[in-house]
Design goal:
This protein has helices at about 10-15, 65-70, 80-95, 100-110, 115-120, 145-155, 170-175, 185-190, 210-215, 235-240, 275-295, 325-335, 365-375; strands spanning about 1-5, 20-25, 30-35, 50-55, 75, 135-140, 160, 180, 195, 220-225, 245-250, 265, 315-320, 340-350, 350-360, 380-385. It is of the alpha/beta class. It folds into 3 domains: about 1-80 and about 275-305, Rossmann fold (3-Layer(aba) Sandwich); about 80-265, 3-Layer(aba) Sandwich (Rossmann fold); about 305-389, ACT domain (Alpha-Beta Plaits). Strand 14 and strand 15 (about 350-360) form a beta hairpin. This is D-3-phosphoglycerate dehydrogenase.
């Protein structure tokens, strides 16, 4: 029996995904946390905790280094809110192209009983453009960017993408009509619209700043629905004020861009739909079950992604530092206890490694002795023995 503790409001569809082997919020010593936006940076984790799963994409509310040191696997649910973000970006693209924000403001001010003549005279001020035939640059072609690119093609737009880290799985999702650029500057050069969809890390902070804005076509429209800091808001404000950029839409407000003309800020609602919350909760529940029952680390953000077929009666998993001779030490400890290895897999992610060993037989006492022996290795963070269900 596994215990799961939830934080925030997890969609009912996700909670109903758990099998009868999982109990929800019935123990103070849970095996798993299922979370959304709760801040865990100062949280003291119980020794029982084996995994934290974030129902969403961002995970800056989880202390990865501390979790790894305690042998806790951390996951997110990439793609669960991708369609929601895509639809919002497309809707804002249409709104900016048709000057809907200015038109709405005009209508709110001029609300006399009979304004038909004035409206007929003034409506040309809000003449917009159609998206068909316009050029869109998509920076980052992952779960969200690929969907935006394909949707823009369906609207008759010309699309060019830039993503030096494009995975083979993501590449399959992208329509072959999407052209590829080998630099951001080339991607944005002739684009009428530029949208950014990249993860936030040391390489992407300030990804779009003065140099990239200068390279853009005059009067281009810019969207940031990735993370705050990826677009340099100070540089964007200057570009807006100088007339270089015609409009900026972002999900991440800060004082410098608040109440500014031609800047539209939404309150971090890109992935906030009922469907996205349900998708994230269901995917999160599946992730908890897969990791606890098989050791599967697909979509882990602090461990290497490993999905090893579980065909033996037992599995030993070891989270450890990525240093030489760890696999040898693990194998030796098992040989000392006459445990025959059926299959062994190992992979690393940065300074952390994960080893999965399948065995045919390991009785209770011998298993506990093995766990104690492996835990004595200074570089080992956590050892688990999983029985095949």
């Amino acid at each position: 029996m596994y215990q799961v503790k939830t934080f925030n409001a997890i969609a009912k569809s996700g909670l109903e995904t758990f099998s009868d082997d999982f109990k929800i919020n019935q123990s103070d010593d849970p095996d798993a946390y299922l979370i959304r936006s709760v801040n865990l940076l100062q949280e003291k984790f119980p020794e029982s905790l084996k995994t934290i799963v974030r129902c969403g994409v961002g995970y800056n509310n989880v202390p990865l280094d501390k979790a790894t040191e305690q042998g806790i696997a951390v996951f997110n649910t990439p793609g669960s809110n991708a369609n929601a973000v895509k639809e919002l970006v497309i809707s804002l693209m249409i709104a900016t192209a048709r000057n809907l924000f200015a038109a709405n403001q005009y209508s709110n001010i001029h609300s006399e009983a009979d304004i038909s003549q004035r409206t007929e005279k003034d409506k040309t001020k809000f003449n917009g453009t159609e998206l068909a035939g316009k050029r869109l640059a998509v920076i980052g072609l992952g779960n969200v960017g690929s969907r935006v690119a394909n949707a823009a093609l369906a609207l008759g737009m010309k699309v060019i993408g830039y993503d030096p880290f494009l995975s083979s799985n993501a590449a399959w999702r992208i329509d072959n009509q999407v052209k590829r650029a080998n630099s951001i500057r080339r991607a944005v050069k002739n684009a009428d619209f530029v949208t950014v969809h990249v993860p936030k890390n040391q390489d992407t902070i300030g990804l779009i700043s003065t140099t990239e804005l200068t390279a853009m076509k005059d009067q281009a429209v810019l969207f940031n629905y990735s993370r705050i800091g990826i677009v340099d808001n100070k540089a964007v404000l200057k570009a807006i004020q100088e007339g270089k950029i015609s409009h900026y839409c972002t999900d991440f407000g800060e004082p410098i861009i608040a109440d500014q003309k031609n800047i539209t800020i939404t309150p971090h609602i890109g992935g906030s739909t009922l469907e996205a919350e349900s998708n994230g909760a269901v995917q999160g529940a599946d992730t908890v079950m897969n990791y606890l029952e098989s050791g599967d680390t697909t979509n882990s953000v602090n461990l290497p992604n490993m999905k090893v077929p579980f065909e033996a009666p037992y599995r030993v998993t070891v989270i450890h530092k990525n240093v030489p001779n760890m696999v040898g030490q693990i194998a030796t400890k098992m040989a000392d206890r006459e445990i025959n290895i059926e299959n062994m897999s190992n992979a690393a992610k940065g300074s952390t490694a994960y080893t999965v060993v399948d065995v045919n037989s390991i009785d209770g006492e011998n298993g506990q002795n093995l766990i104690r022996s492996l835990n004595k290795i200074p570089e080992v963070h956590r050892v688990r023995i999983i029985e095949h269900q």
